[in-house]
Each structure stands twice: as structure tokens, then as C-alpha cells.
Design a protein that fits this description.
With 231 residues, the chain is of the alpha/beta class.
Length: 231
């Protein structure tokens, strides 16, 4: 089964990161799911290939993620990516960048709908798992921004319910369990090792619960990180 991870800086990762993409790929392989991760890009931020796990096969590093890219940007390129790389399932983690820099909740939700329409134009049977915007340091200190995040997440829930069809099902992934900015991120936004596991677990839960793919993900990370100093 072919998966395409679509996201922003939290998905592409930086030099030295394992990434939640790798954590999920490894989990699915361990659960005997013949998972292939595909996409037009394979590098980390700034073109680095220094993954935390060097044994992450080059053939499975494919993705469609970029630093500073949101629904606004990916809606313009998803049709070509789906047409070229033929994923069966899109795993999408987007929204924080849009709300922080480009669009309000309503406009971002409209771009979600445009993204899904473009993906289906390339493959009418495409499936997708969509992750809500997760807790982040700005929302912790900026109440109007936190309200906008909550409004977008509500609109995302509505979109998934309205647009899901038997032929092209959509699933809303559960918010990562017990997300803690100090433990799960290294700067209040980007995932540290425990956060990578929790993001992978959220997608794994959606895949298992919706389509019986894989198995539940036991979040007991062996990789640890020093608690981040959250401003």
C-alpha cells in the first residue's frame, strides 16, 4: 500500500530528525503492512539527507512536505503529486502555517476543500487521513490565535464529515494523546523524538480504526529528548 505524507516543517523534519514519517513507516512494516512511502521529495529541510535513522530506505523517504508550506501551497501541487506517485492514502498534517502566516480559519478550511478536490481530480478513489492542528507554543500564549486554531479544527471536522464518500473515504485522525510541549517538542512546535512517536501513533490509530490497517501504536518511546525550554 502506498502512502504519501503531506505537511509542513513538522513533517519534513530537520537534519538529525527521525521524523514521524519514519516512525510510522517502521510501525506499519512491523505490523506486516506492505507500506511504501512515496512523494516528489525525499529530503529533510534545506535538502539534508541526514536522517536520524540512516537505515530508513531511500525508496521510502518520499513525501510532499515543506518548511513554511500549508494547505494554501499544497492545494496547487497535490493533483500532480497524486497523478505521478499514485498513493493509495494521503496522510496530511497541515494548518498551523496557514493560520500563522497566510489565511484565517475560514480561508484555510476552503483550501482544505480545494486540496481534496484536486487530489480527487487526479485519483477519484484516493483516501486521506487528516490531522487537526495540534497544540503549539503560540496558541499557548496568544488567545485569539488559539481561538482561530479551535475554529479551524471544528471546520476541518465538518469538512471531513461532509466530503467523505464510500469511494473516497476521509478520516479525521485523533489529536496526539497527552501532547506536552516541553516533552514532545524541541521549541514549542516541532516534534522531538517523543512527539514523533505520538504523531505516528495518531495516524496509526486512524488507519487501524478506519480500515484495519496495521495495529495500535504503543507510545512508549525508547528515544528520549531533554525537555525543551518553552518561551
Amino acid at each position: 500500500m502506498r502512502f504519501m505524507c503531506v505537511g509542513d516543517s513538522m513533517t519534513i523534519g530537520s537534519a538529525g530528525d527521525y521524523t514521524w514519517r519514519y516512525r510510522l513507516w517502521a510501525h506499519l512494516r512491523e505490523a506486516a503492512v506492505p507500506a511504501e512511502f512515496v512523494g516528489p521529495r525525499d529530503a529533510l529541510h534545506e535538502g539534508s539527507h541526514a536522517y536520524g535513522e540512516p537505515a530508513f530506505p531511500a525508496a521510502d523517504r518520499g513525501h510532499l512536505a515543506g518548511w513554511g508550506e500549508g494547505w494554501l501551497h499544497h492545494a496547487d501541487v497535490i493533483a500532480d503529486a497524486v497523478h505521478t506517485h499514485r498513493p493509495d492514502v494521503l496522510l496530511v498534517s497541515l494548518g498551523l502555517i496557514d493560520l500563522g502566516f497566510y489565511t484565517d480559519a475560514g480561508q484555510t478550511a476552503a483550501n482544505v476543500r480545494r486540496f481534496l478536490a484536486e487530489a480527487r481530480r487526479a485519483d477519484p478513489a484516493i483516501r486521506a487521513v487528516l490531522l487537526p492542528v495540534i497544540p503549539n507554543v503560540r496558541a499557548a500564549h496568544d488567545l485569539p490565535f488559539a481561538a482561530e486554531v479551535a475554529r479551524f479544527n471544528a471546520l476541518l471536522t465538518v469538512a471531513v464529515a461532509e466530503l467523505s464518500t464510500p469511494g473516497s473515504p476521509l478520516v479525521l485522525a485523533p489529536a496526539p494523546a497527552d501532547w506536552d510541549l516541553a516533552r514532545d517538542t524541541y521549541d514549542g512546535t516541532h516534534p522531538a523524538a517523543p512527539g514523533e512517536h505520538r504523531l505516528a501513533a495518531a495516524f496509526a490509530a486512524a488507519l487501524h480504526d478506519a480500515w484495519a490497517l496495521g495495529a495500535p501504536y504503543a507510545v512508549a518511546p525508547t528515544d528520549t529528548a531533554e525537555p525543551a525550554a518553552i518561551p
